[in-house]
Amino acid sequence: MKSETLGDVLRKRREELALSLRDVEEKVGVSNAYLSQLENRKIMQPSPGVLRKLSELYQMSYGRLMELAGHPSLVEKDQRALFFRTSNGFEEINKEEEKELLDYLRFLRMKRSKK
Fold this sequence. Notes:
The chain is mainly alpha-helical.
């Protein structure tokens, strides 16, 4: 039995919501060409920011999309976030700021690993 890929899951959910690639592009600001490449498995590991936008529009688990894309699990992420907040004096960071910081950190690490 073939296991589901990120592209399969995204296409299926988009079709369930009766959205075209252009509809998604307009709603989340990701080009329809990029979305097509995701669905056709030409891009296998989109950024966490793209996955967050898609998870919100598609009303899907962000954690599941992150796992399908091969990103670290949310449990690991939550543990790192707690350590980051408490060890660096960022107790007053709100949840949205925390998500953005972690997304950006993951982006930087991914960029560094491709060099």
